[in-house]
């Protein structure tokens, strides 16, 4: 009985010391005090960085651009900087010749002013969609070296229709026949999983204003593209995601009292929630195409990059765009306080 009484007395003294120490700490602030005993040594928390330290971190931001580089050659996996986010819009299959801004050899018109060598090396000029997908996904190989363990990869990709029959010589994919939808995004998902990625979400980019195309005479007018969200296979338990930073306006007006979760039956046990007019961002993004009048014929809007950067990075993180185009990603990173690395085969500012 004496031993048990001494034991509980010791626990009570430790509890009093810990309670007194914690009560002296202001809530929401991280302070550091000199330890008074071994009992309270485990309660010390690192103090917040000073404003001067944050300024020094902002001064360390960098924005790197490299032109004349084929990102599909695997150069990204050789990067020494591990990126927190990769967001890019690669050239689509059979759509453009970015040296002159016209449709490429697979389209309806092709200008002979573009050299054959430049056409052959451009992504999107492959003979089959299978070659295109394998070459595109090779850009993102070795995710352990390229992407942080809690990082994300966003690929904006558009689909198209087959102009002829396609047969995969390797036999990994099924045949595609003329006049049917290719399903490029499905092929990309299959190949990215083989390279060590996990498909986190498929997001639809809906374009509110799209002129009628030739396909509208045979089927519904295409007005959307896909934003494929990938993470590393060993990403545990989940990637970095700041949901509140990308909230969008909702249908419920601000100031209206929301019904209780679970229905009115359990309303008396729930707290009253007043709407602020916002809601969690949904997986359909209604964003108008970019009206950029640069030499690039298909720039993607800054709003898409802003959503990805705000949702999946913190301030001072590193963002990579292997198909930079008109440097949309770099402009967004400069505005939001992130570092950026951009690659592209052509300098579209000088074309």
Q: What does it look like?
A:
The structure is a single chain. This protein has 351 residues and is α/β, with parallel strands linked by helices. It is globular, with a radius of gyration of 27 Å. An eight-stranded mixed sheet has the order 1-12-11-2-3-5-4-10. A two-stranded antiparallel sheet has the order 6-9. It has a two-stranded antiparallel sheet with strand order 7-8. It has helices spanning 2-23, 51-59, 116-121, 129-138, 143-146, 184-194, 302-312, 328-336, and strands spanning 63-67, 83-88, 147-157, 197-206, 224-232, 248-249, 257-258, 273-274, 278-279, 284-286, 318-321, 339-344. Residues 17-56 and 102-120 have low confidence and may be disordered. It has a domain at 62-210 and 221-247 and 280-344: Vaccinia Virus protein VP39 (Rossmann fold), CATH 3.40.50.150. It contains eight helices and twelve strands. The longest helix is centred in the N-terminal third of the chain and has 22 residues, at 2-23.
């Amino acid at each position: 009985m004496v031993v048990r009484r001494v034991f509980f007395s010791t626990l009570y003294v430790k509890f009093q010391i810990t309670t007194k120490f914690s009560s002296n700490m202001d809530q929401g602030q991280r302070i550091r005090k000199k330890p008074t005993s071994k009992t309270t040594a485990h309660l010390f928390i690192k103090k917040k960085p000073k404003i001067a330290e944050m300024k020094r971190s902002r001064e360390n931001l960098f924005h790197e651009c490299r032109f004349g580089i084929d990102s599909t050659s695997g150069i990204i996996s050789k990067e020494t900087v591990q990126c927190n986010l990769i967001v890019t819009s690669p050239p689509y299959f059979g759509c453009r010749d970015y040296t002159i801004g016209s449709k490429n050899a697979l389209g309806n018109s092709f200008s002979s002013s573009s050299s054959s060598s430049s056409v052959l090396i451009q992504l999107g000029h492959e003979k089959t969609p299978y070659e295109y997908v394998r070459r595109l996904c090779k850009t993102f190989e070795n995710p352990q070296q390229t992407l942080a363990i809690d990082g994300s990869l966003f690929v904006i990709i558009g689909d198209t229709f087959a102009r002829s029959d396609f047969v995969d010589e390797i036999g990994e994919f099924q045949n595609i026949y003329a006049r049917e939808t290719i399903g490029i995004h499905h092929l990309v998902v299959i190949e990215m999983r083989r390279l060590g990625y996990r498909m986190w979400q498929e997001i639809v980019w809906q374009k509110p204003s799209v002129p009628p195309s030739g396909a509208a005479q045979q089927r519904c007018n295409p007005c959307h593209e896909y934003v494929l969200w990938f993470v590393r296979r060993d990403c545990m338990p989940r990637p970095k995601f700041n949901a509140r930073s990308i909230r969008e306006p909702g249908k419920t007006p601000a100031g209206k009292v929301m019904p209780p979760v679970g229905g009115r039956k359990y309303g008396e046990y729930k707290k009253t929630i007043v709407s602020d007019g916002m809601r969690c961002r949904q997986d359909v993004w209604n964003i108008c195409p970019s009206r950029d009048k640069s030499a690039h014929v298909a720039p993607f809007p800054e709003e898409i990059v802003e959503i990805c950067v705000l949702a999946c990075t913190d301030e001072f993180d590193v963002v990579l765009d292997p198909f930079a185009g008109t440097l949309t990603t770099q402009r967004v990173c400069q505005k939001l306080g992130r570092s950026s690395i951009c690659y592209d085969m052509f300098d579209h500012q000088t074309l």
